[in-house]
Write a structure and sequence with these properties.
CATH superfamily of the largest domain: Aldehyde Dehydrogenase, Chain A, domain 1
Number of helices: 15
CATH topology of the largest domain: Aldehyde Dehydrogenase, Chain A, domain 1
Structural class: alpha/beta
Oligomer: single chain
Bound molecules: nicotinamide-adenine-dinucleotide
CATH class of the largest domain: Alpha Beta
Strand order of the largest sheet: 15-16-17-14-13-18-19
Strand content: 15-25%
Length: 484
């Protein structure tokens, strides 16, 4: 087997391929003939070896000096930020996000590690007075042990970073399984982590299919917690398996995020927020604005200008600096997007622009961004997550109708409103049932140091990121002590 074949990282080293593994070819969605990397796929045996290595390393890492953890995380963050251009180009090449956005994602990954480097030194317990005289109470935070991390393809480095960094920060050992569509960014991250000074076994990475490696990981009895981001369907399976053996679980799943545009909106700001939230990253963000709800006083002007702006977006190779929107991640996702577009037409919506394959040199999976008008709230394009550059516009009479329409969903990740009214902005912030609310901003685009997550079908378990990450990645012990 060629030495150019990359592999999983287990117990402190990259596994030497045996030669009989299935080979995964990582292809560039802008030009599918371009093979980014080849990987030897892990199997369930290697998954067990990774979990056992993590379990063996867990007691020492749990009791490690927080300065050691802080220094390791800081070194990882520093190297990611130093190599940002190279990592961003790799990310753009394997996922199809344009380089400008990939740079933002790499920076976010580096800063997440640096944030949790500091958090390692801040993890403190609490003291309470007892209701019994002469008794004191302390709470102590402990790591959980071995944590399984399963990530999706749409943020190949930021999502792994915002899960791995807090897991290691609080003294857990990690077995990380990235999505098979984006193994190269994950491998680059593992390679950086491999030189950071972590003891063998503390961090492991498995490149392999969800149905085999992900499944073996989530069912392994030594894995005490699973942090997952991906589809609702996989999330439900993981939750059921985790509850079955009473492991901790944290799920971030889909969204069908509404953006309301009211008559009093600044129209330029509303157009920018809509284009950014709906179409950037090719609409492949769980926080994308996929339902636009517009009041009728501004509707005609807004929609006319939105369609003009959408038509002007340049769809092209993710590595080309003039591209606004890169390709869809693969053929399967493109077919799924096109099937949704057909369903919208069949249900009576009007496609005002786009929604068809774009002819771009290289034969990639390009889709012109689509805007659907005459949408009704029962239509599949309005209710289900498409995960592509397709926007459904609903016309309503006033704020009350807009609010009710925004709430009419099984999801609850992000929700936005564009308005100059303090009254409506305040009402929306207070009463929206989404986990994240945006006023005069796109629904997508969040900071790394504050809680991230949603409600209902979008998320399950404690919030991710910022200081809130501690809740999932630690367990609490309550200690009582007689002091006389
Ligand atoms: P997916 O559920 O197919 O895969 C996610 C991960 O789970 C991958 O690593 C995959 O290999 C693994 N997996 C698949 N089957 C498994 C199984 N049976 N057992 C264990 N692991 C398994 O999702 P995807 O297609 O990679 O990602 C797209 C989805 O992710 C979209 O629905 C999107 O909304 C969601 N997403 C959510 C967020 C969020 O934070 N809420 C962020 C990004 C993406």
């Amino acid at each position: 087997m060629s030495s150019s074949i990359k592999s999983s990282f287990v117990n402190g080293r990259f596994v030497q391929p045996r030669g009989d593994e299935q080979i995964l070819e990582n292809r560039n969605p802008s030009e599918p003939a371009d093979i980014v990397d080849r990987f030897a796929r892990a199997d369930s045996e290697l998954t067990c070896a990774a979990v056992e290595a993590a379990d063996a390393a867990a007691p020492a890492w749990a009791n490690s000096n927080p300065q050691v953890r802080a220094d390791v995380l800081d070194r990882i963050g520093t190297e990611i930020l130093q190599r940002r251009e190279e990592l961003a180009r790799l990310l753009a090449r394997e996922e199809g996000k344009v380089v400008r956005e990939a740079l933002g994602e790499v920076d976010r990954a580096g800063r997440s590690f640096k944030f949790f480097a500091q958090e390692a030194l801040r993890s403190a317990g609490e003291k309470y007075d007892s209701v019994r005289p002469g008794v004191g109470i302390d709470t102590i935070r402990h790591p959980i042990g071995v944590v399984g991390i399963i990530s999706p393809w749409n943020f190949p480095i930021a999502i792994p970073a915002w899960k791995i960094a807090p897991a290691l920060c609080f003294g857990n050992c990690v077995v990380f399984k990235p999505a098979e569509l984006v193994p190269s960014s994950a491998w680059a991250l593992a390679e950086i982590i491999s030189r950071s000074g972590l003891p063998a076994g503390v961090f492991n990475m498995l490149i392999g299919p969800g149905s085999r490696v992900g499944d073996a990981l989530m069912r392994h009895p030594m894995v005490r917690a699973i942090s997952f981001t991906g589809s609702e369907q996989t999330g439900r399976q993981i939750a059921a398996a985790a509850v079955e053996r009473m492991a901790k679980v944290q799920l971030e799943m889909g969204g069908k995020n509404p953006l309301i545009v009211l008559d009093d909106a600044d129209i330029e700001l509303a157009l920018d927020a809509t284009i950014q939230g709906s179409f950037f990253s090719t609409g492949q963000r769980c926080t994308a604005s996929s339902r636009l709800i517009v009041t009728d006083g501004i509707y005609t002007e807004f929609v006319t200008r939105l369609v003009e702006r959408t038509r002007a977006l340049k769809v092209g190779n993710a590595l080309d600096a003039s591209t606004d929107i890169g390709p869809v991640v693969d053929e399967k996702q493109l077919e799924s997007d096109l099937a949704f577009i057909q369903s919208g037409l069949a249900e009576g919506a009007t496609l005002a622009c786009g929604g068809n394959r774009a002819a771009v040199e290289g034969g990639g999976f390009y889709l012109n961004p689509g805007v659907f008008l005459d949408v009704k709230s029962h239509m599949r394009i309005y209710r289900e997550e498409i995960f592509g550059p397709v926007l459904s516009v609903l016309k309503v009479r006033n704020y009350e109708e807009a609010f009710a329409a925004a709430e009419d969903t099984e999801f609850g990740l992000s929700a936005g409103i564009i308005t100059s009214s303090l009254k409506y902005a305040e009402h929306f912030k207070r009463h929206s049932s989404a986990g994240m609310v945006m006023v005069n901003l796109a629904t997508a685009g969040v900071d790394y140091h504050v809680p991230f997550g949603g409600n209902r079908g979008s998320s399950y378990g404690p919030r991710e990121q910022g200081t809130y990450a501690r809740e999932f990645f630690t367990k609490v012990k309550t200690c009582y002590q007689r002091s006389n």
